[in-house]
Amino acid sequence: MADQPRFFFFDQPPPLFVRVFGLGFAVLGGFGIYAGIKGFIALVHGSHAAPADPLACTIGVLGGAWAGTIGLRFLIAPDTARPVLSQPLLFLASLGALAGTAWFWTFTDAPDFRLKLTLEFGGAGILGLVLWWSRRKGRSRLG
User: Given this model, what pLDDT does residue 4 score?
Assistant: First the structure.
């Protein structure tokens, strides 16, 4: 059987790159947790500003914990052969990206910003669902 074609982005990266990537995710996760807790504290003290919205604070804490977990996994054991997101998390993250796209479309009036958000978040959600489906059917080489 002939070797499968290899693509740059899908090769196994060097361990140093994985650790730097993990450090970035851990820092991002820490910032999300910090911002979420700071918003909850502001909410408890009577602030009704947008950063103190309970939904935004919850998203910050949960998203920060999730990103921090992924980052720590890459820092501690950079196993690049294992997928970063499990099947349920990949499915939920993809649906979350699509829901975020719909939410931004609802509250944004700038057409250029809408297009940018649709291409970024909507594209990530659709590609995530495609990857989830291909893994489910056993046809994915990506993990």
Answer: 47
Taking the domains of the chain in order of start, what are their residue ranges?
A: 1-82, 83-143
Mean pLDDT of 58-86: 81
DSSP 48-77: -SGGG-HHHHHHHHHHHHHHHHHHHHHHH-
Q: Closest by alpha carbon to 84, among 33, 15, 2, 22?
A: 22
Does the pLDDT value for residue 45 go beyond 80?
yes
Cα(71)–Cα(18) distance, integer angstroms? 9
Question: Which of 8, 12, 28 lies closest to 70 in space, CA to CA?
Answer: 28
> Residues 28-36: what's their mean pLDDT?
92
The pLDDT value recorded for residue 37 is 92
Compute the distance between CA of residue 98 and CA of residue 8 in angstroms, rounded to an integer.
27
Contact 26, 72 (CB under 8 A): yes
Report the candidate in 123, 64, 129, 58 with the shortest Cα–Cα distance to residue 93: 129
Confirm if 74 and 22 have CB atoms less than 8 A apart. yes
Going by pLDDT thresholds of 50, 70 and 90, the confidence category of residue 56 is: confident
